[in-house]
Amino acid sequence: MSKPLVSVIVPCYNVEKYLDRCLESLITQTLSEIEIVLVDDLSPDSTPQLCDKWAEKDDRIKVVHKKKNGGLGFARNSGLEVASGEYVMFLDSDDTYEPDACEKMYQAAITEAADVVTGNFITEVQPNIWETTRNESGDKILDGNGIREYILDVIASAPYIGPDRLYPVSVCLLLMKKSIIDDNGIRFYSEREVASEDTLFKISFLKNCRKMVCLDFPFYHYFLNGASLSHTFKPAIFDSLKTLRAKLIEIMGDGEEELLRINRFIISDIRMHITRLVESKQQNKLKFVKEILNDDIWRDLSSYKPEYYGLYGRMFYNLCLWNTPSLLLMYAWSVSKMRKMIRR
Questions:
Q1: What DSSP line would sit under 99-134, residue for residue?
Q2: Pick from 186, 238, 236, 241: which is nearest to 208 by CA?
Q3: For position 229, what pLDDT does the model report?
């Protein structure tokens, strides 16, 4: 095969039930000049054998077998080391693409001489029930300050905006010029060290881009596939959020606007972290909340004033600042129960 136009990197771990579905969506892409890089992250199920069988069927498929399990971020890095396409995309191995995903994204990049193209996704919220995320402003082209504003809105919304974030952090929604990644040594941190490794990679990449195309094209099919690990409580997440904040400041600087967005991001993720604790079967929940509220990070976050939040967000933030763990736990539990009743 000649040099591929697009390399699609697919990290694989414990996905024997979903990998065939994922790869069927890739080998049938309308853009045939693609390279598919499967990274087996030392998966304990039959995933490694499935990867090899698929490589025998299609010579566009490369397989990397990791000698040590390193997690999603490092698996993607291994894929980047061997990918040879002009552009690169990431696809999680339990998800799929629209049939013309690679072609539309690549053609947009070539037509506009863009460094990056982004689209949207559809989510299977229940079996065979899909919810589409769309760009309300339609297709658009960004450069210079437009890209800077986009980066800030990826981190968190401006003070006068209700939702915590305007754009998803996921790198899976991007087609990226690989030379920019390589020339700037951009790689993923381990998700075991830093929360939201996608955010750091995406921002580092976008800061080096001159031109960006945003398509109103929901090309990515996101399957919930039951209970996702990303929605479970993991005590170490809080420390990884603090590390994330430090890394974001390192990349973005500590200007007033940058700190406003970064602090909003961290506060919203702490709120999500405590919500997951409340909804989990974790023992000693009060102990974990006390540890979070007694952390020094609240000295840095105390100047943040989320007046634009709804009642829940404002109250949650104030209870954190007032260091009232029992009341915070009770409040978060009550809101969680109420939301579950509404969803029914």
A1: TTHHHHHHHHHHHHT-SEEEEEEEEEEETTEEEE--
A2: 186
A3: 43
**CA 184 centroid distance within chain:** 21
Distance CA 177, CA 115 (A): 5
Per-residue pLDDT, averaged over 304-312, amounts to 68
Closest CA to 38 of 69, 7, 20, 61: 61
CA triple 61-226-136, angle to 5 deg: 80
| Token reading at 145 | 């300050």
Exposed e or buried b per residue across 212-225, where buried means at least 16 C-beta atoms within 10 angstroms of its C-beta? bbbbebbbbbbbee
Taking the C-alpha atoms of residue 280 and residue 136, their distance in angstroms, rounded to an integer, is 35
Q: How many helices (H) and strands (E) does the chain have?
A: 13, 10
Name the β-bridge partners of 303.
none
Q: In angstroms, rounded to a whole number, what is the distance separating the alpha carbons of residues 40 and 51?
A: 8
Residue 54, SS3 per DSSP? helix
pTM equals 0.92
Among candidate residues 224, 228, 218, 220, the one with its CA nearest the CA of residue 25? 220
Could you read off the pLDDT of 164-186 as tens digits, one per residue? Answer: 888 999 999 999 999 999 999 99
Q: Which amino acid is at 42?
A: L
Q: How far is residue 290 CA from its own chain's centroid?
A: 28
